Amino acid sequence: MNLISKKDLLAVTGISYGQLYRWKRERLIPEEWFLKQSAYTGQETFFPREQILSRIKSILDLKDIYSLEELAKILSPESSVEKISLGDLTEVEEINKELLEVLPEVFGEDQFEFFEVALSIAISQAAERLGLSGEAAKNLLKKSAAAALKHKTVTIFCTIFTVGEEYHTVFTPNSVAMSFDNEVELKEELALSEITDKIKMKYKHLFIK
User: Domain residue spans in the chain?
Assistant: First the structure.
C-alpha cells in the first residue's frame, strides 16, 4: 500500500493541521490510519494514501450538507445497522448475484453484519476486475471470510495474490509492505474502508441506524 506523509497530505488536500486533527477527534478519520514511522527528520506521521484521500474528499464534499456529527454517523463503522437481511441486500448492485446466493452458506445465516457485506462487495468487485468466473469468486469469498472474520472490522486491508492458479487473500490491520517470493503474484490491494464510505452514502436507508 502506498503511504502519504502528513505534510504532503495537507499540501495535496488544502486542509489545515487543525482540521485534520479535529476530524480525527470527531471520528471522521480512524485513529489507526495515523501511522508513526521513522524518517530522516525523525518520527513522522504517514497515512494509507488512497484511503485518506478518499475519506477527505468525502468529508469535503459532504461537510456543507451534513454536520460533523451527522458525517461521523455516516462514516463511522459503529453507526451501521446491526444486521441486514438477504432480501435487502438484493438492492446492493455492487454484490455479484452469484455471490449473493452463497452468503448464507459462507456466513452461516441469512442476516448479515455490515462488515460481512463490505467483505462481500470487496471480493465481488475484485473478482470482476480480475476476470474470475462465478465459481472462482465464490471460492475466494469462502476462503477470505474465515480469515477476515478474525478481525471483524472494516478498517482492515486485504491483499489478493495467486500461487500458481490458486487465488488467496491476507488481511492486515494496517497498511504494510509485504514481500513475496517469486512463486507468488500480487493481484489486488484493497481497503474495506474505501468501500464502506461509498456504500453507506449510496444506501443510507439500509446501512445507517
Answer: 3-75, 79-207
Q: Closest Cα to residue 129, out of 187, 48, 194? A: 187
The residue type at 94: E
* 133-163 pLDDT, tens digit each: 999 999 999 999 988 888 877 778 899 999 9
Question: Residue 161 and residue 101: Cα distance in Å, rounded?
Answer: 25
Crossing angle for the helix pair 114-130 and 97-107, nearest 10 degrees? 140
CATH code for residues 3-75: 1.10.1660
SS3 135: helix
Where do runs of H (alpha helix) occur along the chain? 6-13, 17-25, 49-62, 68-75, 86-89, 97-107, 114-130, 134-148, 192-202, 204-207
- Enter the pTM of the model: 0.77
189: closest CA among 181, 201, 206, 177? 177
Cite the DSSP H helix spans in 90-191.
97-107, 114-130, 134-148
